[in-house]
Amino acid sequence: MNTLQLTLGPVLFYWSRDDILRFYSEAADWPLETIYLGEAVCSRRQQLRGQDWIALGKELAESGRHVVLSSLALIESESDLRRLRKLVENGELQLEANDLGAARLAQQQGRPFVAGHHLNIYNADTLALLQSLGARRWIPPVEMDRDTLAAVLQQVSDKGLNIETELFAWGRLPLALSARCFTARHYNLSKDDCQFRCLEHPDGLRLNTREQQAFLTINGIQTMSDGCHSLLPHLADIAAMGVRAVRISPQWQHTERVVAGYQQAIQALNSPLHTDIDLAPYADSRLVDGYWRGEAGIAAIGEAHHAHS
Amino acid sequence: MPATRPLPELVCPAGSLPALKAAVDNGADTVYLGLKNDTNARNFAGLNFDDRTAREGIRYAHQHERKVLLAINTYAQGGDISRWHRAIDEGADLGVDAIILADIGLMEYARRRYPELRLHMSVQSSATNYEAINLAQELFDIRRAVLPRVLTLDQVKQVIDHTRVEIEVFGFGSLCVMVEGRCLLSSYATGESPNSHGVCSPAKFVRWEHGSQALGARLNGILIDEYQQGEPAGYPTLCKGRFEVEGDTYYALEEPTSLNVMAMLPQIIDIGVAAIKVEGRQRSPAYVAQVTRTLREALDAAGREPQRFSVKPGWTQALSKLAEGQQQTLGAYNRPWK
């Protein structure tokens, strides 16, 4: 069995150019198989432009990392498509396709790609189709539970499909995308004049219920969970299922500690010694894993959250 | 002036046989329906069609020379996807005029098994650009795509100008503020989402809490909103609740409003939209009748005299009584192009 690998997802928040460059100069030394980078959320975020992401990616690739460019998940305008074409045509780095249009462009260029979790692959037939278009790896939808994934992977194996699986394993869950910007809405600004207020919220804006239960995170046009999804307790099962890699989603602080914790946990899988790794201090919200257990995604690790059924 | 465009088809919801007949009787060109299971995105108790009602509905519509579309617009889940395949087989057997699919794996199945069957790309496929639509056209010969309710009118035009696939847009009904097919808020709160179970904020998770001061609306225990006495209470769809962000309590994601594109009909016709869809398979036959009749009148008027078209007060009045939260909006369509 292959050892489980660690990857770093694209930064989903809006950080300044300097912060991004600093983050990746540090990340270059972390024990990561693959680094994903690029703007995957909002087309207005241009602290780094397409060319800058490509240059940064090539630099990281030269230092020996496998680098993948993540495409925008919501492609609406002709200028979004122009930027996407530039990413696909970079000639060197692979693309993470977060939209069917991106998958089509990669296919037309004859370039292998990663099928991102926004492509909504919920069964092996759909996965086989994406693979035939050039997908070499896929990320299941973040809401997919363990048993559904196991059933899909069984069929992948039965069909002899040659495709790797990567799971979203740590971070606030990307749950929804909109044409509207909720950060701009919070500041009573229009989306087209948002003044880039996302820069002030490097981990997003917390949305509480009216009785102060932390519920969601506003991140521009994206809505995320407040809970920090963690598959750390399930790594042995995940490795045994044949998953190739687990993804850490970058956060403003302590990403390095989280990567180190996962690395330690993965190493412990092959050792008889018991290790007890607690990453809760490095999350600034509650740890949740409900999705993996077939519960509501908000269910905290170890907790049932089904009021019914 | 461009050549006169054909009028877009008016596509109306049928959650039941009476709703289907109401749509046909009041001027729908096409109705769409789903089967009684989780293969469609309005998988609600008491709604949708079995074999007998589907046959009767199709017979009724075809007798009146209208079309029937079958929505199979959830994503086939996991190891056993025979339910979705059977739904496609059933649609082909029933003789529907097209099947609306979200999952591209299912499009592949439908095309392979039924080469003559007309396929539409569901709004749940999240196809917001022509590259995505053209991929499905090349691979599966889809004939129509339904656009998510997130594009401006100019963006809709961009899509139309770059594809041979017919384009259908939403014209009236509840407003989904998130990109369809890309929203998991419901499963985060309850474990069930439109993609996986064909439901959003499902009723079985709703609990009303009658306090002395206020009425609380909870979804799986999570407080979605709270209403003071005298305040109208709405269904706790979770993106339409009031939440607190940095000390402000407000509709942080979306106000309960309805989409209504009536004022834009001449432009919608002019850019070449092929069909206008009314949301609401969960609505009553009376609702479907009223909305269909009003939009039929408005569409015909816009087609006859696009230059002189204006929204008649009677239409607005008829629709505003039905609109969610009593407010109506043009949605994303009128965001200024940049």
TrEMBL record, chain A:
<keyword id="KW-0411">Iron-sulfur</keyword>
<feature type="binding site">
    <location>
        <position position="181"/>
    </location>
    <ligand>
        <name>[4Fe-4S] cluster</name>
    </ligand>
</feature>
<dbReference type="GO" id="GO:0006744">
    <property type="term" value="P:ubiquinone biosynthetic process"/>
</dbReference>
<comment type="pathway">
    <text>Cofactor biosynthesis; ubiquinone biosynthesis.</text>
</comment>
<dbReference type="InterPro" id="IPR051454">
    <property type="entry name" value="RNA/ubiquinone_mod_enzymes"/>
</dbReference>
<keyword id="KW-0479">Metal-binding</keyword>
<dbReference type="Pfam" id="PF01136">
    <property type="entry name" value="Peptidase_U32"/>
</dbReference>
<dbReference type="InterPro" id="IPR001539">
    <property type="entry name" value="Peptidase_U32"/>
</dbReference>
<comment type="function">
    <text>Required for O(2)-independent ubiquinone (coenzyme Q) biosynthesis. Together with UbiU, is essential for the C6-hydroxylation reaction in the oxygen-independent ubiquinone biosynthesis pathway.</text>
</comment>
<feature type="binding site">
    <location>
        <position position="194"/>
    </location>
    <ligand>
        <name>[4Fe-4S] cluster</name>
    </ligand>
</feature>
<dbReference type="GO" id="GO:0046872">
    <property type="term" value="F:metal ion binding"/>
</dbReference>
<comment type="similarity">
    <text>Belongs to the peptidase U32 family. UbiV subfamily.</text>
</comment>
<feature type="binding site">
    <location>
        <position position="42"/>
    </location>
    <ligand>
        <name>[4Fe-4S] cluster</name>
    </ligand>
</feature>
<dbReference type="InterPro" id="IPR043693">
    <property type="entry name" value="UbiV"/>
</dbReference>
<keyword id="KW-0004">4Fe-4S</keyword>
<keyword id="KW-0408">Iron</keyword>
<keyword id="KW-0831">Ubiquinone biosynthesis</keyword>
<feature type="binding site">
    <location>
        <position position="198"/>
    </location>
    <ligand>
        <name>[4Fe-4S] cluster</name>
    </ligand>
</feature>
<protein>
    <recommendedName>
        <fullName>Ubiquinone biosynthesis protein UbiV</fullName>
    </recommendedName>
</protein>
<comment type="subunit">
    <text>Forms a heterodimer with UbiU.</text>
</comment>
<dbReference type="GO" id="GO:0051539">
    <property type="term" value="F:4 iron, 4 sulfur cluster binding"/>
</dbReference>
Automatic annotation (TrEMBL), chain B:
<feature type="binding site">
    <location>
        <position position="200"/>
    </location>
    <ligand>
        <name>[4Fe-4S] cluster</name>
    </ligand>
</feature>
<comment type="subunit">
    <text>Forms a heterodimer with UbiV.</text>
</comment>
<comment type="similarity">
    <text>Belongs to the peptidase U32 family. UbiU subfamily.</text>
</comment>
<dbReference type="GO" id="GO:0051539">
    <property type="term" value="F:4 iron, 4 sulfur cluster binding"/>
</dbReference>
<dbReference type="InterPro" id="IPR001539">
    <property type="entry name" value="Peptidase_U32"/>
</dbReference>
<comment type="pathway">
    <text>Cofactor biosynthesis; ubiquinone biosynthesis.</text>
</comment>
<protein>
    <recommendedName>
        <fullName>Ubiquinone biosynthesis protein UbiU</fullName>
    </recommendedName>
</protein>
<dbReference type="Pfam" id="PF01136">
    <property type="entry name" value="Peptidase_U32"/>
</dbReference>
<dbReference type="InterPro" id="IPR051454">
    <property type="entry name" value="RNA/ubiquinone_mod_enzymes"/>
</dbReference>
<feature type="binding site">
    <location>
        <position position="183"/>
    </location>
    <ligand>
        <name>[4Fe-4S] cluster</name>
    </ligand>
</feature>
<dbReference type="InterPro" id="IPR043692">
    <property type="entry name" value="UbiU"/>
</dbReference>
<comment type="function">
    <text>Required for O(2)-independent ubiquinone (coenzyme Q) biosynthesis. Together with UbiV, is essential for the C6-hydroxylation reaction in the oxygen-independent ubiquinone biosynthesis pathway.</text>
</comment>
<keyword id="KW-0479">Metal-binding</keyword>
<keyword id="KW-0408">Iron</keyword>
<keyword id="KW-0004">4Fe-4S</keyword>
<dbReference type="GO" id="GO:0006744">
    <property type="term" value="P:ubiquinone biosynthetic process"/>
</dbReference>
<keyword id="KW-0831">Ubiquinone biosynthesis</keyword>
<feature type="binding site">
    <location>
        <position position="239"/>
    </location>
    <ligand>
        <name>[4Fe-4S] cluster</name>
    </ligand>
</feature>
<dbReference type="GO" id="GO:0046872">
    <property type="term" value="F:metal ion binding"/>
</dbReference>
<keyword id="KW-0411">Iron-sulfur</keyword>
<feature type="binding site">
    <location>
        <position position="176"/>
    </location>
    <ligand>
        <name>[4Fe-4S] cluster</name>
    </ligand>
</feature>
